[in-house]
Amino acid sequence: MPAPDTARPNQFALLGQRRFAPFFWTQFSGAGNDNLFKFGFTVMVTYRAEAASALSAGLMVNLIAALYILPFVLFSATSGQLADKFDKASLMRKVKALEIAIMLLAAWGFMAGNVPALLACAFGMGLHSTLFGPAKYAYLPQHLNAAELTGGNGMTEMGTFVAILLGNLAGGLLMAFEQGPLLAGAACLAVALVGWAVARFIPPTPPVEPSLRINWNPLTETARNLKLAATDRTVLQALLAISWMWFYGVAFLTQFPVFAKHVLGGNEAVASLLLVVFSIGIGFGSLACEWLARGRVEIGLVPLGALGMTAFGVDLYLSTRGLPHIVTLQGAAAFVRDQAHWRVMLDLFLLSASAGIYSVPLYALIQMHTPITHRSRVIAANNIINALYMIVCSGYCAALLAAGVGVPMLLLSVALLNVLATAFLLWRQPLYGRHFLAWIRGRAMAT
Questions:
Q1: Class of residue 329 by CB neighbours under 10 A (exposed 0-12, middle 13-18, buried 19+)
Q2: What is the C-alpha separation between 174 and 188, in angstroms, rounded?
Q3: d(Cα 108, Cα 121) in Å, to the nearest integer?
Q4: Which residue of 1, 54, 184, 426 has the smallest Cβ count within 10 Å?
Q5: What are the residues whose beta carbons fall under 8 Å from the beta carbon of 446, sequence distance 6 or more?
Q6: Confidence category of residue 53, pLDDT binned at 50, 70, 90
C-alpha cells in the first residue's frame, strides 16, 4: 500500500524502501540486458563477417530492431490483461524467469555464432519487455501516493535510460575482445540472474481484476484496449502525447551514427558520446520533474518540455551550420576539445532533458486518472500506440533520407513537427496550457 503523503517527497529516499527499490533494480536490469544483448548482437553481425549469414549487416540490424518491436504490437493487449488479473510482483518474477531462459539460448547462440537462435532471442526479449511494461507502470500507483508519483516515475524513467546507455556501452566493449561473443553471452545470462534475484524482494501487489477472463486473440483484444483508452479523452490525449515523444526520440537516436560521421566528422566513439549525452539529458530532465512540480502531478510541465524539445532541436540544426569539414574522422577526445562542438552537445543535452520533463508528468497523469481495474490494459494500449509511432517514425526518416534530405534537416523537421503535435495537444486538451501558465505564475511569485 502507498505510504502516507509527505510534505516534501524525496524521490531518492525511495531507493531505500522495499516498496520501490527491488522494483527499480528489477526494471533497471531488464532494460540494461535488453540493450546489452541487442547491441552485442548488432556489433557481432556488423564486424564479425562469419556471423552475418546471408543477409547484409544493414539488413540484419533492421531485422533485429523489427523483431524486438513486433511483440509490442502482437502481445501488449494480452500483457495488459495479465497485469490486471494477477499479482504484479508474481508476474514480474515469472517474466524474469523467462528472461533467464532466453539468455541461456542467447549465450549458446553467441558462442556458436548461430544467427537464427539470436534472432529468436531478439523476439524473445521484445516479448519479455512487452509482458513487463504494463505491470511496471501499473505497479507504481499501487505502492506510491500521489505526492510521490512524479518522483517515482522520474526515477524509473531515469533508471531506464541509464540502463539503456550502460547496456549499449557494455555490449560494444565486450564484443571488442577476441572472446567477445562468449563474454557477451555470459554477461547477458548474469544480468538476467541478478534481475530474477532482485525481483524476489518486490512486495506483493494484489490483482485488481482477478475475475477477468483472458481474451487470447491479440487482434480483438488490441481493438478492445484501444477503445478502452479512448473512453477518457484526458487519458487518450496523454497516450498520444507520450507516443509522440517516442517518435521524436527514435528520430534522434537512430540518426546518431550517420550524424556523428557525416555531419560532425566523428568516429564510432563520437556516436557513442552523443548517446551518452542524450541519455544523461533524459535522466536529468526526468529527475528534475519532482523539483519543478513540487511533489504534485503537474501537467503544466508538458508544454514546458515541448517548448524545449523544439527550441533546442532548432538550435541543434543551427549549431551544425558552418562546422569545419573534417577529412579524417575524429575520436571523442578530439571532438570534445573542439569548442565548435560544445554547442551541439549542449543542445542535445537540453533537448533530451526537455523530453524527460515532457514525458514524466504524462505517465503520472495516466496512472492517476485511469481506474485501477483496467489501468494495466490502458498502459498496454499505450505500448501498442508507442510501437506504431516508432514504426511510422522509421518510415518517415527512411523516406526523407531516400529523397536526399540531410540528417540535420531531418532532425529540424522533427523539431518543427513537435510544434504541430503540441498545438494539437493544447487544442484537444486546453488544461495543459492553463496549468502551464499557472505554473509560470507560481514560480514567478515564489522568486
A1: middle
A2: 11
A3: 11
A4: 54
A5: none
A6: low
